[in-house]
Amino acid sequence: MNQRWLVVFSPQAHQRGLKSVNKHCLKQTTANFKAFKKLCKQDFQSIDEAQNALNKFEKTLKLTFVAESDFVSVPHYHGAGRPSNEQKPDGFTYRIEGALASLPKVRMEQLQRKSCFILASNQLDMEALVLEQLIEAYKGQQKVERGFRFMKDPMFMASTFFLKSTKRITALLMVMTICLLVYAALEHRIRQALKEHDEYFPDQKGNAILSSNHTLGIPVFCWY
Q1: How big is the CA angle at 59 (ends 68 and 53), to the nearest 5 degrees?
Q2: Strand pairing partners for 96?
Q3: ∠ Cα 29 33 39 (to 5°)
Q4: Could you tell me if 23 and 124 are in contact, meaning their C-beta atoms sit under 8 angstroms apart?
Q5: Higher-scoring residue by pLDDT: 188, 22
Q6: pLDDT attached to residue 206
Q7: DSSP per residue over 10-35, as a string?
Q8: On the CB side of 93, how many CA atoms lie within 13 Å of its CA?
Q9: Mean pLDDT, residues 179-186
Q10: Would residue 62 be called left, alpha or beta, if left means φ above 0 and alpha means ψ between -120 and 50 degrees?
Q11: Backbone angles phi, psi at 42, to 5 degrees
Q12: How many C-beta atoms lie closer than 10 Å to residue 88's C-beta?
């Protein structure tokens, strides 16, 4: 199916994503630095073996990278006590030395993904459905969900309904849809009347609670 996608940036999601991404990045980078420090303490029999271990470690990194790396030889003596300056070592092992650095680009990509969401529509005509209408329709879904919220109320006893016939199920859904449509129409008329008379519904403290962002406490259904 051909679709038109709209990527929407949300400031609220950006703030939430900022906390989660920073927490994740701090945890991951701390683990990487500890793992690299542990790797630098290991002894390897050859430089090739140390290089292979370093390459394997680099493949596990996502938020950091090895900025500097070098291999140093560590002499070993079989005799007891401190060796003299003229004594030659009996063998060598090799260790990794270096430093890790962070990748800010990866963090920014994760933050951008957390800060945005995608709206998809099969309406490809830009004039028939402009971007502003697409966002408005998406935000209006919460009104539909709020309208059906009463079905979860135990007092409604929706779980007691058992309809075996497909026709009866369809009829019940039609009745519920009409009821919700009537609720929405009543809410609209109440809002209009309160707006015309400059009135409001008071809360327990007498403050106004009616606005364009609040409901009247009744189910709402958006009809498109």
Answers
A1: 70
A2: 71
A3: 140
A4: no
A5: 22
A6: 75
A7: -HHHHHHHHHHHHHHHHHHHHHHHHH
A8: 10
A9: 83
A10: alpha
A11: -80, 145
A12: 8
Cα 28 to Cα 18: distance, rounded to the nearest angstrom = 15
Determine if the pTM surpasses 0.70.
no
Which residues lie closer than 8 Å to 54 by C-beta, 6 or more apart? 39, 66, 69, 96, 98
Owner of token pair 């966002």: 135
> H or E stretch including 6?
strand 4-9
Give, in order, the Cα–Cα distances in Å from 132 to each of 136, 144, 223: 6, 19, 18
Burial of 219 (C-beta count, 10 Å sphere; 0-12/13-18/19+)? buried
**Dihedral sign (CA 63, 68, 69, 75):** negative
Tokens of 57: 């470690």
The closest of 148, 134, 210 to 184, measured between CA atoms, is 148
The amino acid sitting at 208 is A
Q: How many CB atoms lie within 10 A of CB 122?
A: 9
> What confidence tens digit (pLDDT) does each residue in 41-66 have?
999 999 999 999 999 999 999 899 99
Q: How many CB atoms lie within 10 A of CB 42?
A: 13
Q: Using the structure block, give the residue that is written with the tokens 């498109």.
A: 224
Which pLDDT score, from 0 to 100, does residue 33 have? 94
Q: 196-208: b or e for each residue (b if 16 or more CB lie within 10 Å)? A: eeeeeeeeeeeee
**CB contact at 8 A, 48 and 75:** no
SS3 state at 168:
helix
Over residues 123-130, mean pLDDT: 82
